[in-house]
Design brief:
The chain is an alpha+beta fold. It has a single domain, classed as Nuclear Transport Factor 2, Chain: A (Roll). 43% of the residues lie in helices and 29% in strands. Strands 1, 2, 3, 4 and 5 form a 5-stranded antiparallel sheet that branches. The termini are far apart.
């Protein structure tokens, strides 16, 4: 009986550790591709999707980092993505912070 309890606890531990990996993989699967990012940026900046070029898309957990060229102006951007939901894109000129407060996300985007 004790062996069965030990097995159940071990199996539960393995299952729970797999949930984190699965959630991260699923968020990457549902993150928008370049065309999806292009549409999000266009909507946020009030331009046509054809006025936006997206490159260097990189997924890190629930955050998608990318570079956007909006009507000839270079921007470093990111969004947060979850299953079926994306934040509005946040962008800044290269070398400038995205928000007034520094944090890990703005520092990473600024230094790309």
């Amino acid at each position: 009986m004790n062996g069965m309890k030990l097995f159940a606890v071990a199996a539960l531990g393995v299952a729970l550790s797999g949930c984190h990996m699965a959630a991260s993989t699923v968020s990457g699967l549902f993150a928008p591709d370049e065309e999806g990012l292009q549409k999000l940026v266009a909507r946020e900046y009030g331009v046509q999707p054809s006025d936006v070029t997206v490159t260097d898309r990189e997924i890190d957990g629930h955050t998608v980092y990318f570079k956007a060229n909006i009507k000839g102006k270079a921007r470093n951007c990111y969004i947060t993505s979850s299953v079926g939901t994306n934040s509005a894109p946040l962008c800044a000129e290269p070398g400038k912070p995205i928000s007034s407060g520094g944090n890990a996300l703005t520092d990473r985007v600024r230094n790309r």
